[in-house]
Specification:
Blueprint lengths: L1 H19 L8 E4 L5 E4 L6 E3 L2 H9 L26 E2 L2 E2 L1 H6 L4 E5 L5 H9 L4 E4 L4 H14 L3 H22 L6 E5 L13 H8 L3 E2 L13 H7 L3 E4 L6 H10 L6 H4 L3 E3 L2 H4 L5 H13 L6
Parallel strand pairs: 3-6, 6-7, 8-9, 8-10, 10-11
Antiparallel strand pairs: 1-2, 4-5
Helix pairs in contact: 5-6, 6-12
Length: 300
């Protein structure tokens, strides 16, 4: 069985390589990705595979859902994306499956997708474009870049402009309102938060807050309750992958510590992790929700 799979892989590989050997026409366009790699496309891609859920969301936001021929596991938004063929998880990609779907473009991420996976796909003659959104501004720039690569530059500029306008509205409304200390809990057991190298931190900053763990040396530090008590956050926001009753229980656990200003003043909140855990267009909605929690005094 393994030999058969291997032969199928080699056969598929040879087909792709043969197809990719066709000389590019004069109308071919070249693009530089986040790693400075140059890729050349003969025409706008019609069969695209994004290798992370946030990239799937971006393609759908650009109206390119019909061009998506495969997605990674957990690509559940928008709902119609969940029915697309699966190519593994974004940290465990099934290269053979991707080849069988005959994409003319694969979009990958710097952090999530292994370099070896990218190299295998390129050896198979598949074009791989790599992006690296780390802040809200970079997410919006990535939307523009992906639109340009996919041949819908004007549509992408329109989407990006609308998102940028919403970001600017939040920044303007929170300006001069002070910066309450915010503790963002992204995991329940153990308790974990974020430092300034994350897009979560960027959300807190743009929403008019101050991330109390911004200077931690570890990107996603473990923080014990005693340390949170010592730092006295004004707001506690819980964004965990936990759902249902356990999600609510995490909030109730903090209510046992009234010496924390956030607890004393009833400012311990839950937020939908889907809105702030993925560098996708929904990150702007997450920013808006976070701003409402950090600055409830503002008329939104």
């Amino acid at each position: 069985m393994e030999q058969m799979r291997f032969r199928l892989f080699i056969f598929s590989l040879s087909i792709i390589i043969a197809l990719s050997a066709v000389e590019a026409p004069a109308s071919a366009r070249s693009f530089e990705d986040a790693l400075g790699r140059k890729i050349t496309l003969r025409s706008a891609p019609k069969r695209i595979i994004p290798l992370a859920p946030n990239l799937t969301e971006i393609l759908y936001a650009l109206g390119l859902g019909d061009r998506v021929v495969g997605v990674t596991r957990f690509s559940s938004y928008p709902p119609e994306a969940a029915s697309k063929p699966k190519v593994g998880s974004y940290i465990d990609i099934n290269v053979e499956r991707i080849i069988s779907l005959l994409p003319d473009l694969v979009i990958a991420t710097v952090d999530g997708n292994a370099q070896g996976t990218v190299e295998l796909l390129e050896q198979a003659g598949i074009k791989v474009f790599i992006v690296n959104p780390r802040t809200i501004t970079q997410v919006i720039d990535t939307i523009k870049t992906m639109g340009k690569v996919c041949g819908i530059q004007q549509e992408a500029l329109y989407v990006a402009k609308r998102l940028q306008g919403r970001v600017e509205r939040v920044v303007e409304k929170t300006r001069g309102r002070g910066t309450p200390g915010v503790f963002l809990e992204i995991n329940i057991r153990p308790i974990m938060s974020v430092n300034k190298k994350t897009f979560h931190h960027d959300l807190i900053r743009l929403a008019g807050g101050r991330n109390i763990t911004e200077d931690e040396p570890i990107t996603y530090p473990r923080i014990n309750i005693e340390e949170v008590i010592r730092r006295r956050p004004d707001v506690i926001i819980i964004s965990s992958m936990e759902r249902g009753s356990r999600f609510e229980m995490a909030r109730k656990e903090w209510l046992k510590w009234p010496s924390i200003p956030a607890v004393k003043n009833g400012r311990v909140y839950l937020i939908d992790s889907d809105l702030i855990d993925r560098p996708s267009p929904r990150l702007v909605q997450g920013l808006e929700e976070m701003a409402k929690l950090i600055h409830p005094e503002i008329q939104w």
